[in-house]
Specification:
The structure is a homodimer of 245-residue chains. With 245 residues, chain A is α/β, with parallel strands linked by helices. The first copy, chain A, is built from eight helices and 13 strands. The radius of gyration of chain A is 19 Å and the shape is elongated.
């Protein structure tokens, strides 16, 4: 019986995959995904069939996974980070619809909010929002409105897709919106190449972030009003120390 | 040289731990944590020293981890879900301060937003907020304000700690706030005992959620305006199908 497992492989290194994701990749017949993600896992799982599609061919890729599962294969559809959070799981469900076959299984993985936070210190100890600056599928006005509400709510904010081809100034514009509601010295952080070669972090103010160069391999963290820097790390306290114990 | 590794063990089952978390637990000398979480991993890592503290003794627990690391031990401080998101990582950094020893390492794990979403379907394909209803360390008014802003931003919302002892009606109150900005038939979901015995999900409307019984083992998901039910699963599309390909 064929099946589509939509597998979040985490930030990219083997150690940050879940044991379950590793098991599913070992047991599957076919690995399908965007070329870059398939390349991240290819060497570790020999003997599989690997099928890739280009970055913007999501519908084609998910339909291919469903079709192969209907033929009886165990298909692992790999996504970077989590398979649900900005991942392919929803699209696989949508394309299959109510037909019940093939079986769909969602295997979650570490999203960049988790893995990036761990590299930066602990910026997400309190309530937070995750917002993508990609306007490929979302109106830019809605993204701006979400940033503004999240800032007013004093949520920490994790920004995915801070930059990509054709929209070099989105992060700068986002910072301008945030600066309407936050002080310019708000603690921010950038995590780049999380779990991959060249992993690095930068801790900087919101003022500096506005002018910063953050490419498509970066995840950006905006602190809440309590966030501070401790020994070069970005830390959002939850308030345990202030408690009467 | 001693070290504190703050380890997110995910929802509770072995398969949903990361390979790195498993490695760190295998290699450490001492496992420290809240009793319930230590019990989840105890049998799998024999030969370790296990130290536990009660639920509200977070400062004591983290200080114990630091002290043991200063004595030269490799300490794994376990947290359920992620070690950063509502976890102990920030407190360990705060208690150590700028002293640079012992070394602190944050090992992220699957937070309930990821693992719960995977069980429910794919509710977090688009921007979302994570908000805890626990007012032990946070003013209830701030929690209410965050819910209201998140709803107005049309973010999907993940609610942690929907209920605990002494605050049985927080989820109901939260739903009342959300109902000011969302239709009563908004698709919602509850994931209970994620990755543990008795795992189950409920898909329901916001109106039904307001009256629902959600205990402290539940994580609650509120859809955004696009969220729908497909074959009993909670699905938030991202918009790939509407794209011109």
């Amino acid at each position: 019986m064929g099946k589509v497992s939509v597998v979040g492989i985490g930030p990219g290194n083997y150690e940050n995959m879940t044991i379950k994701a590793d098991m599913v990749l070992k047991e599957c017949d076919i690995v399908i995904g965007y070329t870059v993600y398939v390349d991240l896992v290819k060497d570790r799982y020999p003997g599989k069939e690997f099928l890739t599609t280009a970055m913007t061919r999501e519908v084609q890729r998910c339909q291919m996974a469903i079709d192969k599962a209907l033929e009886g294969y165990k298909v692992a559809m790999v996504c970077s980070g989590d398979s649900g959070i900005y991942g392919m799981a929803a699209l696989v469900y949508e394309l299959r619809g109510d037909k019940q076959v093939p079986e769909i299984e969602v295997i979650s993985g570490l999203t960049a909010a988790c893995s990036g936070a761990a590299v930066l210190g602990a910026p997400l100890t309190h309530d937070f929002a995750v917002i993508s600056l990609s306007d490929r599928l979302t109106q830019w006005e809605l993204i701006c409105s979400r940033l503004s509400y999240a800032a007013r709510a004093d949520l920490s904010i994790v920004i995915y897709n801070p930059r990509s081809k054709g929209r070099p100034d989105h992060l700068k514009k986002a910072c301008e919106i945030l600066l309407d509601h936050m002080p310019a010295d708000r603690v921010c952080g950038i995590a780049q190449h999380i779990g991959r070669e060249g992993e690095n972090i930068r801790i900087l103010s919101l003022r500096e972030l506005k002018e910063a160069d953050a490419d498509m391999f970066c995840t950006v963290f905006i602190g809440n009003s309590m966030t501070k820097v401790i020994d070069g790390k970005m830390i959002t306290p939850r308030g345990y120390r202030e408690m009467k114990e």
